[in-house]
């Protein structure tokens, strides 16, 4: 069985661990298409937060307590950069993490595509999954914020980490998205899959960068990378999504602010309906919401999405595995239709 | 009094410390023109070994015991790069040092010239001297070696560090030298100086990259950066050099192999004669050799160089200071002629 997960960083990585475990006794291969919209050039190196979160989690090297980055991390280099007044003093650039950025930057400068560099970096471990960046092109999410009387435009990571998503968003800009195309293997991974899963990731800036996400009430949406949404709409595989919102709040991160900036409500029901039914030109055959949100099922079902309420909290590895099994079962049922 | 030192890395830095101390009670300014021929791109960052050696020494952060790099250094990032199989496993890239490389690379990518980036990095400390790279252009020393039946061409640092200068040299290549020009301030620092000192640095690959160095017996020399040699030849200031060779051996490093590769003998006398008297189109008014090499004085004097034998071993800070005072005295005497 070929399973393809479309994912952002930390939240998606938790789910990916559960999915890998759920598949381990089966004859299955797992491909993970990862958001690259948070990528950036910082102090001369290419940083890919979501790819790294995914790689570290699958390699068992992530800092589970802190929730991001490498376990046993230090910041010796970062302290030097601060002393020189270079870079972003509020952005943690761990030493071990920096090793990854430097290795990647070296490969990119040698002419490798990001997907090739990613494959080479991942070859260091037995990850049990193939990581594919959504695009080899540089697509970066920037944020136009309203600050006092004027506006300020900053990289998504600056808005996210420095302002902690408090700077009011006028719109998200996806620089480079208009000319970006899917990385080698992305469309194939979706087209040839037996199951496609949308991870419980930020629907606007993680999955939205990959698949697009509409605005509402006069707000600009995000375009996504041309070709990936179409591949999801056309695949013969069932497509099941897992809600990143439980009871009106994102499980992790700042999806609420992102949805608000696009004029969209923050609920499992709303995100499911915006993703939409594949039968109606949307992305989903099936949508998993938390048991707390079972009230959303009738509206979702009415829109043509096979919705189910299951426990979504991934409070440990076993909960992640059970959620992944729920997603695979939902996909199987959707395929039976 | 304006003093300008032309220098390589570690050996020159030792002398620079002595010179700074010798000048501290005088109304004096110290400019140091530093070799950039060992510079390189490594794992996507610009490494400038001699500039860094000089900066760390003047900032009091150098590892005096090991003889190079930063004190209290670690190699966390380097270990990651090795695990990824990226870069040069035999080249130590310390974490603190890497902070400097990343800061520099960031500034270079922002469009600053190396001399501007160097000034910005050095502003972190009170160095008591202005560091100027010999050139803002990329001049890199590469080595064509004879290996078995064939030849191999490698960066100078690879020849120096990986082969420990054992790979037989066919010739040194100074890539980029033909189109390089002196960095802003270099020619001025020489022209406007009251004293110019050539540090006890490798005459071929350190000072030779800056000033040029001839080959002999059919061997190719090194061209140097056009304009700096002429500035030294023309300056109204006395020019005094300090021999890097004591009793037929370099004080530190592999000058013997470098001189041999150019068909030149390794002695304080030979290097002084090759630098030559300014009166005869050379570089020196005065040349300091070690007391052990006082036998060289007659030949040097006969060639028009005011040679003196003084203790050259810089076994501690005070010895470096006394040597610097000897150099300043020699300059004064040369100016009196």
TrEMBL record, chains A, B:
EC number(s) recorded for this UniProt protein: 2.7.8.28
Gene3D superfamilies, A to Z: CofD-like domain, CofD-like domains
InterPro entries membership: CofD, CofD-like_dom_sf, FbiA/CofD
Enzyme class label: transferase
Domain of life of the native organism: Bacteria
Alphabetized SUPFAM superfamilies for the sequence: CofD-like
Keyword list, A-Z: Magnesium, Transferase
Molecular functions (GO terms): LPPG:FO 2-phospho-L-lactate transferase activity; magnesium ion binding
PANTHER family assigned: 2-PHOSPHO-L-LACTATE TRANSFERASE
Entry protein name: 2-phospho-L-lactate transferase
